């Protein structure tokens, strides 16, 4: 499965063509799905372009995207940078009037289990965000409802491709006992090497302006669709190089 991560916690200062408004997110989602994305992860924004978990913003973003790409799963963030207090974060989830198909919960953040429980109560799938270099993997595995997660978002945070490959192998070892499927991805300089690593190891992966602003050749990506197109080509090349995937 190839997921598109449309915007992340980035701002227009980093990426002038970052999709921020519901209409922009809907257009970006349509283009990305046309290019081959099978799942969508997005960060709803407030009027100032900051990530928010407020019900109205979540509803506007999710409704706009669903209307454009019906039938494609749509997920949002629950990152602590949007709302620091975990109890308030869980309360915001419970106040959502339009429910996304899934939402990410970062297990290195305080109150992850509380937020995840609120999602389960709402019938929303959990993407368990596990950052390399943190105690998140063990915290997640120790959670009694870990088996109920929709998937694990294994995020490699190391800065160099060589370190990222080593970290990815180690994180997969740490998650060996987990039952949910794993989506492996990197960020910035390691986004493309980790995508190749994920494809080689038959894992789901993702790409989008949240994770990287450049194509594999280093040129700036004009939109999420360009990143998805490049990712599909990279995955196909990896499959051709691996006869077991034919």
Quick summary:
This protein has 246 residues and is α/β, with parallel strands linked by helices. It is 39% helix and 15% strand.
The end-to-end distance, rounded to whole angstroms, is: 16 Å
Task: Return the string of H and E elements.
Answer: EHEHEHEHEHEHEHEH
Structural class: alpha/beta
Residue-averaged pLDDT: 95
The CATH superfamily is known as Aldolase class I
CATH class: Alpha Beta
Strand residue content: 15-25%
* Shape field: globular
| CATH third-level topology | TIM Barrel
Strand order of the largest sheet: 1-2-3-4-5-6-7-8
Q: How many beta strands in the DSSP annotation?
A: 8
Description:
The chain contains eight helices and eight strands. The chain has helices at 22-35, 55-68, 86-94, 112-122, 136-142, 161-174, 191-200, 224-241, and strands spanning 2-5, 39-42, 74-77, 102-106, 125-131, 151-155, 182-185, 204-207. Strands 1-2-3-4-5-6-7-8 form an eight-stranded parallel barrel, surrounded by seven helices. The chain starts with a strand and ends in a 5-residue tail after the last helix. The model has no long low-confidence stretch (mean pLDDT 95).
